[in-house]
Design a protein that fits this description.
There is one protein chain. By secondary structure, the chain is mostly beta strands. The protein has one helix spanning about 55-60, and strands at about 1-5, 5-10, 15, 25, 30, 30-35, 40-45, 65, 70, 70-75, 80-85, 85-90, 100-110. It contains one helix and 13 strands; from the N terminus they run βββββββαββββββ.
Length: about 110
């Protein structure tokens, strides 16, 4: 299996880049990783199975739920929104990654 979803993260209107080499070390390549800062995720495994957006964030060592992205938490004035291919989605960290999906996480004013 080898798929390539795109992930964009917007924090208060600004685009947050996704670093190169998330999930890659000198002796290990995790099933979900990045090669460059293009926002393209690489999902590679020896057999087909569902990988989730939450798994990528755990590999990255960052927080992502319906109530939080990184250190930014929802409150009475701020919210986290997830869209996939331009359509609102409520799966958040449970979103199953699919080839060529355009995933956008946005933290913004309500």
């Amino acid at each position: 299996m080898h798929i390539h979803p795109q992930l964009s993260i917007l924090i208060n209107g600004g685009h947050l880049g996704i670093p190169a080499n998330i999930g890659i070390t000198a002796d290990c390549m995790r099933p979900i990783h990045t090669h460059d800062a293009s926002s393209q995720l690489h999902v590679e495994w020896t057999a087909a199975r569902d990988f989730t957006l939450g798994e990528f964030f755990r590999i990255w060592g960052k927080t992502f739920t319906k109530n939080q992205i990184f250190d930014y938490k929802t409150n009475e004035t701020r919210m986290v929104i997830l869209t996939v291919n331009g359509v609102p989605n409520q799966d958040f960290e449970n979103l199953v990654l699919r080839d060529n999906d355009q995933i956008v996480i946005e933290y913004r004013q309500r």
